[in-house]
Hints:
Elements: H1 3-23, H2 42-62, H3 71-84, H4 88-108, E1 117-119, E2 125-127, H5 128-152
Antiparallel strand pairs: 1-2
Helix pairs in contact: 1-4, 1-5, 2-3, 2-4, 2-5
Amino acid sequence: MNALMAAAKQSATDGMEMFLRNFAHIPDDRLNWAPVPTAKTPLRVAAHTALYAGRFAKMINDRNLPAFDNLEEWLATRNAEEIAITSREEMESAFRAGTAEVLVALDNFPEELIGTAIDTSMGWKMPANWLIALPGWHATLHTGQIDYIQTCWDDQEIYLA
């Protein structure tokens, strides 16, 4: 296996595990807490992160980004899917399933596309290396959000496990 692809697979898995490990420290009574009414709750951030793993697998398989005939409609559907996840267990199940799909998609990604730019349905070229790194990067990005949310209720603990 190509070293870049192996690194992308490891990053996707490690990113998911790091996110889930940090999210495990969100108390149940804070899952739906928000600093202001319009902010996302920890569970909503987690649902978003989890569901995108499967979305990234589709993008990797299709070698394209989603086509947006109607962006508002697409966002409304995405938001409804995130809101439909109402428990820690549902989120983790979706995250693990989506990450498993990412690993399969990366196994099937043509090596000859590594280092190239892929035409997208949005009219611009997407670096293939960016696409294959996206699942791990995305999980890491949202782990930072969870860490910040915890500080909003004065949880200053450093969680190493």
